[in-house]
Structure formats: structure tokens, C-alpha cells
């Protein structure tokens, strides 16, 4: 309960409409349950109580679902625009059979623009982080690499940002889930393993995961 309260406080701080949506989600089933109780119980107190309890439980469930969705969106809003934000979503926010890596497959060391990769039932998704004007060429280069290795696997490009044609960070998981299924689950695993086996090490953009950066060893004299 303490953790839920902390999540609610954080969500309400960044999303003022969340508490009202939760209240509406809770009250609607309660009112429906009360209405059904009065309509179907024929004055039986026990039946009325059962309907009211069912309405309360349904209301709590809906309120918690709304809280989870809004909390996720609020969390994404705090990191949106920062280097490594897409990687954070790929690490913890993917569902529907999609797998992604928090490390980018291509990085511009000067601008910190990056391209990430996810594999799912829809094929291979290349996701850019940075202005479209700077990342379009990076996306095209990566698509050519994937197509050369896996010519029969669909490859899509997704830009995350504020530019026209881009999507907001919190919409990325939903955009992946909406893709048309083209691969089976075993094929997803095979494609992911194939691409990971060919992945070369890349410099880590600032802000992505500094805690995982390995210290350089001193040279032996």
C-alpha cells in the first residue's frame, strides 16, 4: 500500500487528470452494481450486498489499471528527450512478444543521436532517438544491414521525438504491438539471436547507463 501510494503521488504530480480518471473508473462499476442490486435483488439484502461488493471490487480493479497506465506514461515523460530514453523503454516497457535491447545498434558520438532495434512478431523495428533530419540516414543504413542479413524479414522504421511523423516516447510500446504479425515466436527468437550474434560493440551515449560503464585499466609499464 505504501508503494502504491508513492506511485499515485508521483503520477498525480506529473498527470493532474489521473486522479479524476481513477475516481471515475472506481465509481462507475459501483453505481452499476448498486443499480443492478436494486433492480434484480427484489429486496433481498444479501443479494444487494453481493452486487455492491462486486461493484466495489470491479471499481478497485479498474482504478488500479488506470493508475498503472498513467504511472507508466508519467514515468516516460520524466525521461523523454534524454539520451537513452528509448533504451529504457525497450528494457522494461515491451509486451506482446517484442524483445529489445537497451543498448543502441548505432550511435552518433557528437550529437548523441542513436538507433535501437527491437524484434517481434511484426519483424524488426529500428527506432531512432533524435531529430529526423539527423537520424534518417542512420535508420536507412541499419535497415540495409538487416535486409542484407535477413532479406525475408520485414523491417520498419520508427522515429521517437517531437518532429512531424515521429511518435511520443510513451506511445512506442503500443506502436510496436499494433504491427501486423509476420513471424512466429520461434522465428522471433531466431532472428533476435542472429542479429545479436553479429552486433559489434558501440560507444555508450551519455545518459544511457553510466553505472554499467567499465573503468579503463591502466597500461602496464
From TrEMBL:
Keyword vocabulary terms for this entry: Membrane, Transmembrane, Transmembrane helix
Keyword Transmembrane applies: yes
Location of the region described as Disordered in the Swiss-Prot/TrEMBL record: 201-221
Pfam family, one: DUF4191
Ranges annotated as spanning the membrane: 20-40, 46-67
Name the UniProt record assigns to this protein: DUF4191 domain-containing protein
Species assigned in the record: Agromyces cerinus subsp. cerinus
Amino acid at each position: 500500500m505504501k508503494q502504491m501510494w508513492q506511485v499515485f503521488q508521483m503520477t498525480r504530480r506529473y498527470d493532474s487528470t489521473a486522479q479524476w480518471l481513477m475516481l471515475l473508473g472506481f465509481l462507475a462499476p459501483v453505481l452499476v452494481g448498486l443499480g443492478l442490486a436494486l433492480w434484480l435483488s427484489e429486496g433481498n439484502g444479501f443479494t444487494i450486498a453481493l452486487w455492491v461488493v462486486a461493484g466495489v471490487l470491479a471499481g478497485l480493479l479498474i482504478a488500479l489499471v488506470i493508475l498503472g497506465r498513467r504511472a507508466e506514461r508519467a514515468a516516460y515523460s520524466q525521461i523523454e528527450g534524454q539520451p537513452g530514453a528509448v533504451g529504457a523503454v525497450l528494457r522494461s516497457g515491451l509486451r506482446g512478444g517484442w524483445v529489445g535491447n537497451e543498448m543502441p545498434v548505432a550511435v552518433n558520438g557528437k550529437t548523441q543521436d542513436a538507433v535501437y532495434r527491437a524484434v517481434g512478431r511484426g519483424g524488426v523495428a529500428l527506432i531512432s532517438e533524435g531529430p529526423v533530419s539527423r537520424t534518417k540516414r542512420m535508420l536507412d543504413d541499419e535497415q540495409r544491414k538487416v535486409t542484407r542479413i535477413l532479406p525475408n524479414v520485414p523491417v520498419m522504421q520508427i522515429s521517437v521525438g517531437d518532429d512531424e511523423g515521429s511518435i511520443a516516447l510513451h506511445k512506442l510500446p503500443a506502436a510496436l504491438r499494433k504491427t501486423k504479425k509476420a513471424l512466429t515466436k520461434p522465428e522471433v527468437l531466431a532472428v533476435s539471436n542472429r542479429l545479436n550474434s553479429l552486433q559489434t560493440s558501440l560507444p555508450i551515449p551519455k545518459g544511457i547507463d553510466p553505472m554499467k560503464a567499465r573503468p579503463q585499466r591502466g597500461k602496464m609499464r
